């Protein structure tokens, strides 16, 4: 296992050390969309005609279309025709399980979960991509440029069963936003810490008695977004384990004193009617109703909500102005940091039964060069976009990103690995483009996501799930006042007895294993 990873990750570490001072993630600086060109551009392989079978995913918002121009563009550059199959019921996981179990697999498979790739790979159904690095010079250079994304694609056995991606994860970026027009009307400025946030929310509550100035959706899961500003956090909002880069250790956020500080604020907000009384059960529709009817003015969600609200709401209220809000620190002078959410696990896998493995590797290598990046992000120059000294622009007036996807197939599942998010931003409003430019200043460092063995996954799915359920019940009671915050230490002991150390130990072992592989 260690030998398999040695050459790729040693090179990756070297680049990480060199570029660490210029990027919080330890990766090369990137433009607003999160993409960057390699230092030098490798040449594309000579075009040779191939047809590969591919089990892909069809998104309901832009259903698969065999006539999308993107397939034509890909064939023109690579010589490859993809014979695409999609699940008839849109249930990709079910289709993958049935396909692999049948043994009659296509050349390539698409997954939305790295765990799925690791499972099938360790069963022998998938190819270890690292075995073919000599056939993929572009991917090799890309891995040196993006060591974190590379490491996060590695399985617990030291192999790589899914092609890593970078760039499209920006669609998952989450930040704070506020109603600038309402703040301005009431002589308020954006708060820089939670003390100021409390003062601002109180002022808004007095001005709008029927409002709940701060709101979000989906209950406690958004604590992951708030936690980094308090110097604590979680890996993905599910297991609450995070890596403390300063102390170089894995920790469990919900038992820490700084986490308690966050819960104490939320308890105060709840008691004073600054957040909705039913915040634990508010769904997306209810939250949208609050934000669009002058009953809530501060929120945290996907940054794209800037356009989601502004564009339709200004037809009713020309003053409506939801803008990016710098993250309020947990305390004066503290950290103004958001959780790092801008990643996706989606990717393409190659089946071990394919008779075209080497040809597929040559094909996939194209997408890790600048020419491939531009193709899958923007399409064809002169046809879908223009390029004026590096400033790209779509030539058609697409209503939005969804419209562009439906008409071209660009940035739809199975058409990309590395993606230039500036393509999506070019279809956004100036307010949203500005939000993306500001947002990078408030990023937390990207958390490592070490691959777990089946035994480790079992611990997380048993002990971890019990921890999460107990945590949720206790935190809900602390916030709503059903349980006194004076019982915090008792709550901490309850979680420790369930197995905090076991779950933290799982991540520590997996992380140490990945670090040993690097060395």
UniProtKB/TrEMBL annotation:
Pfam family, one: SBP_bac_1
Endoplasmic reticulum among keywords: no
Native source organism of the sequence: Paenibacillus alba
InterPro entries in the record: Bact_solute-bd_prot1, SBP
The organism's place on the tree of life at top rank: Bacteria
Coiled-coil ranges per UniProt: none
Record has Membrane as a keyword: yes
Entry protein name: Extracellular solute-binding protein
Keywords, ordered alphabetically: Cell membrane, Lipoprotein, Membrane, Palmitate, Signal
Gene3D superfamilies: Periplasmic binding protein-like II
């Amino acid at each position: 296992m260690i030998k398999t990873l040695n050459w790729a990750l040693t090179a990756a570490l070297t680049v990480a050390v060199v570029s660490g001072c210029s990027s919080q993630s330890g990766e090369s600086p990137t433009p607003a969309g999160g993409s960057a060109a390699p230092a030098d551009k490798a040449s594309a392989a000579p075009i040779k005609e191939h047809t590969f079978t591919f089990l892909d995913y069809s998104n309901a918002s832009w259903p698969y279309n065999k006539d999308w121009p993107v397939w034509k563009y890909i064939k023109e550059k690579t010589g490859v025709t993809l014979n695409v199959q999609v699940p008839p019921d849109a249930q990709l996981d079910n289709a993958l399980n049935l396909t692999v179990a049948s043994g009659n697999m296509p050349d390539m498979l698409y997954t939305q979960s790295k765990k799925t790739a690791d499972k099938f790979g360790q069963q022998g159904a998938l190819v270890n991509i690292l075995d073919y690095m000599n056939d993929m010079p572009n991917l090799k250079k890309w891995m040196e440029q993006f060591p974190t994304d590379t490491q996060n694609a590695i399985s617990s056995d030291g192999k790589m069963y899914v092609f890593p991606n970078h760039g499209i994860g920006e669609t998952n970026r989450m930040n704070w936003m506020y109603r600038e027009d309402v703040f301005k009307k009431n002589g308020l400025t954006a708060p820089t810490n939670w003390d100021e946030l409390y003062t601002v929310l109180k002022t808004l509550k007095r001005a709008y008695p029927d409002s709940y100035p701060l709101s979000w959706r989906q209950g406690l899961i958004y604590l992951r977004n708030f936690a980094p500003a308090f110097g604590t956090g979680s890996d993905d909002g599910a297991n609450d384990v995070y890596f403390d880069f300063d102390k170089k250790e894995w920790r469990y956020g919900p038992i820490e004193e700084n986490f308690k500080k966050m819960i104490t604020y939320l308890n105060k907000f709840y008691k004073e009617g600054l957040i909705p009384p039913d915040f634990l059960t508010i769904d997306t529709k209810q939250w949208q109703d609050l934000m669009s009817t002058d009953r809530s003015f501060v929120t945290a969600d996907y940054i794209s909500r800037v356009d989601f609200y502004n564009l339709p709401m200004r037809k009713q209220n020309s003053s409506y102005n939801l803008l990016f809000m710098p993250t309020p620190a947990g305390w004066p002078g503290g950290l103004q940091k958001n959780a790092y959410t801008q990643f996706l696990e989606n990717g393409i896998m190659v089946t071990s039964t394919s008779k075209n493995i080497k040809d597929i590797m040559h094909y996939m290598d194209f997408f890790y060069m600048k020419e491939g990046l531009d193709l899958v992000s923007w399409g064809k120059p002169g046809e879908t976009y223009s390029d004026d000294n590096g400033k790209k622009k779509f030539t058609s007036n697409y209503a939005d990103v969804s419209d562009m996807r439906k008409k071209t197939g660009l940035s739809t599942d199975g058409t990309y690995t590395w993606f230039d998010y500036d393509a999506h931003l070019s279809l956004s409003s100036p307010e949203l483009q500005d939000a993306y430019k500001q947002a990078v200043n408030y990023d937390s460092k990207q958390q490592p996501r070490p691959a777990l063995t089946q035994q480790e996954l079992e611990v997380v799915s048993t002990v971890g799930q019990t921890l999460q359920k107990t945590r949720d019940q206790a935190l809900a009671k602390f916030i709503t006042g059903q349980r006194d915050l004076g019982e915090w230490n008792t709550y901490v002991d309850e979680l420790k007895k369930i197995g905090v150390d076991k779950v933290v130990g799982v991540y520590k072992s997996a992380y140490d294993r990945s670090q040993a592989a690097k060395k």
